[in-house]
Amino acid sequence: MAPGAERVRSVDSGTARERIAARSPWEVSVRRFRANRLALWSLYVLAILVLAALLAPLLAPYDPIAIGDVMATRFQSPSWAHPFGTDEFGRDLFTRALYGARVSLSVGILAMLLATSIGSLYGAVSGYFGGIVDGVMMRIVDVWIAFPAFYLMLLLVGVFEASVPVLILILALTAWPSTARFIRGEILSLRERDYVEAARAMGLPAHRIIMRHLIPGALSPVLVTGALAVAGMIGAEAGLSFLGLGISPPTPSWGNMVAAGKDALASAWWISFFPGALLTITLIAFSLVADGLRDALDPKALDQKYV
Amino acid sequence: MKDLPILSVRGLRKSFPIGRGWAGQAGALEALAGVDLDLHPGEVLGVVGESGSGKTTLGRCVLRLIQPSGGDVTLDGIDFLALRGRRLRRGRRRLGVVFQDPYTSLNPRMQIGQIVAEPLRASRQATAGTVSEKVVQLLERVGIEPRFITRYPHEMSGGQRQRVAIARALATDPDILVADEPVSALDVSVQAQVLNLLLDLKREGGLAMLFISHDLAVVERIADRIAVMYAGRIVESAPTDRLISHPLHPYTQALLSAVPSVDPALRRERVRLRVDLGHPGHRVDGCPLAGRCPVVQDVCRSEVPPLEEVRSAHRVACHLAKDQLD
Amino acid sequence: MLLSVSGLRTRFEVDEGELWPVNGVSFAVAAGETLGLVGESGSGKSMVALSIMDLVPSPGRVVAGEVAFEGLDLLSLGGAAKRRMRGGGIGMVFQDPAVSLNPVYRIGDQIADVVRLHRGLGKAEAWRETVHLLGDLGIQEPEKRARAYPFELSGGMRQRAQIAVAVAGRPKLLIADEPTTALDATVQAEICDLLKYIQGEFGMSILLISHDLAMVTDVADRIMVMYAGRIVEIGHWTAISREPRHPYTKGLMGAIPHLGAGSGRPLESIPGSVPDLADLPAGCSFHPRCPEAGDDCQAALPRLEDVGDRLCACYRVGGSK
Fold it and tell me: Rounded to two decimals, what is the model's pTM?
């Protein structure tokens, strides 16, 4: 793109804009997101998965854990009665996948929410006050990040029994520092914006500047990193459960379901395949949504569209 | 009869520490090297300089957006730099600020009405009921129709946004408006509109202005007095007409001669500055212009010329200025 | 004529419809002449330059018109010929040298590259030429400076370096888009002098694009004024600056603060603001803001006509309706 080329559209109060009702930047972003087909469809897919997870007890045709007549029902390939087939205990895998969705998605989303809230607040305070406060807070973050996340997780899982709430806590604890660092960076650059300086010059109190001017500006990158973080969390949980360190059977999670079928890939491929496919679809969908969010929330989109 | 200054700056200094320069020095960038100025009620003081002159730093120090390294800023008799907490916030209300870039000086997520109302709400100068009335009044005063109250900044043009910024600056009924390049980012025709607005506000009375700009022609229109800055110091200050017609400092002369004019008859003999091969911002002995001055003498290289009044209200910082008086 | 542009039209397709930042632009640049192109933001002036050079960014496209350079139709050139043209036939200088000079190469290397490419000289000779050119363009200690990286130079020197890169291939035409806008006043004046020098010394033609009417008056032989994608007035610089005739040009001249006019006098401002290119007024784009507008102005677009000492697109100015 040629530098120095001027803005083609001059932003005018006049005619064209007036016909369009007043639109807040959020509304502009929503519109841009919806125009992105890939991101929009990914969002629909995720919505379906989340809905299915929430409604699992209603949708599930069987019980996920109960074991009936094992010999008659085990290792059945996918059929109308069992769309995802049955596992070695004769349990319906479609049902288990639904309940597994509950585990995987709730761990991923809740862990992300926890990490993001802690990280954002921490980063915002550190970035706004700067100086010694910032220095100390960021050194703590540096130390934390220095621990390899995976081994930290192994350690914590070894000490505490891995249930869903515990797992959420552990994942959040390993992820919040990077969010904090990122948000701090955003806050640092936002702090220099003219409208923030104007707020300082007119004597607004610190809390108002942070809440009204800094955080809304930082929300956009938070949303994007949040969407990506969920994907990471779901992947981490799946990994831990696959290794037998996360959610342990009989409670289904997509991770331990894939593990359960790993020795029977040649004969009973459906045991690993379906949870694996669901994991893949979910992770890709979150990434596409994150991409779409990033494009939609791009602040430059408001003014300078062309050139 | 001159009234007491509403704003008084004495010996204002600001140094920015910088790491090792690529030449291997660790040092400081002296953005302001001791600035004195007075601003009287209702007066517009134009501060003119090029990049690196320190004019923007001066504005930010006066507003206490950055902490000066030394000197005093007195606001209507009060030591502004010593204020804290609630008293500082109250003091800040007497200053209004307008920045250069209309595209970043308004919070894009707030409506115009909210932006202008914010200083009112924060200072609790108006009750909840009267806030909206005052907002309408302010917007009308700057020429924005009330129907724009629910609009967002991105739906308005650069000129309109700048007007909103002015309305916001006037919300707390300040004594002084600090305008840092308020029209530089605007198109010519819009620039004229906003300048005329500022002229109207000045005429309506009472508002003193610190008008910082690199554009001498713009400053000439609006300022009663002009102070020219170079390398963190004021090198000349005089009433506007006097400075434009009889500049005494070589830098002022060079600046004036560099302004292009549509009318060839108004063009001046160019005063050329030599190229300076030194490092900007590092403290030098003597006059900061010595490396480039076309009429430099030995004394210029060893002694810093003080800012002295050589004629009524006309001050110059140049060893040779007296020789130039007609 | 060195450069002849006729009926140039560039279109951008966007969500809200179509924009025409270049909407039927025709002009010519003679050999050795400087033509100034003046307009505010949204006038399309930069887009004219990009259209000529085939550098229009998407979603824009040149959709109509002819650009003849030394008889060659630029718009229909193939890849290799086009590349030879850029730098060899036409050089371009942009507003911000910090952005258009490659920060990881020394300026001498960047200039020498152009010399070798377009003038076919060997490495050592090209370097000598480079140093010579830098000195010619007013850079002190050119041997030393040629080995510098862009970040080591001041704004004014960077702009000189950028100009050096643009003229190193000895192009016949230099397109300068806002070359002085990001510079201090004293440096601006020097660059203006430099442009005048280049025109004289190298016999180059210059298309000088700027919003600064005063600066253009100082440098250009002829001036054309653009508004909302169209040219509204073209003439000799004395004619345009002493006696502007198009209402927009008159408004612009009145809005510019002239040094020496005294303190406290308001400027003449043009009411309203530049129209949104996606929603232009019917007929003459300027009529809603024009103090001289009549009914005919809204009905049909006035054409650019010869009114004696210049070309002007206005029903109120000479010519026939």
Answer: 0.84
